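We include the pair:
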Amino acid sequence: MYNDIIIDNFSDPAHVGDINEPNYEYEIGNPVCGDRIRVQINITNGLIDSARFRAWGCATSVATANIFCASLEGLAPEQLAGRTSNEIEGMLGELEPSQHHCVEILQQLHHRLLSLVGKDCREVMP
């Protein structure tokens, strides 16, 4: 069963799509389940003004990508460093055991973006 957070973000993902010439672009994947998420981020005046994703995987991973992108807009990328593991996990609500791999996916999305901040590159890895 899916919680309301997952249902809302999977049923109507507002952040799915592409950005022309994003400042940051990267992809993460889970080799166990095969889920993949590509994220594109645009920054204007030091703040994330748009974040979009493409996801291939289960409903929870699609929702995870949308939740991640929604949580970025209006922030300076450096602000993500202040998010704790508990805060990141809480973004998805209560999950079934089969959905817990998406907590790791969400943490990977955060860590990869933080590793790219300040670099002038777009990194896309399958």
The chain has a mean pLDDT of 92. The chain is about 35% helix and 20% strand.
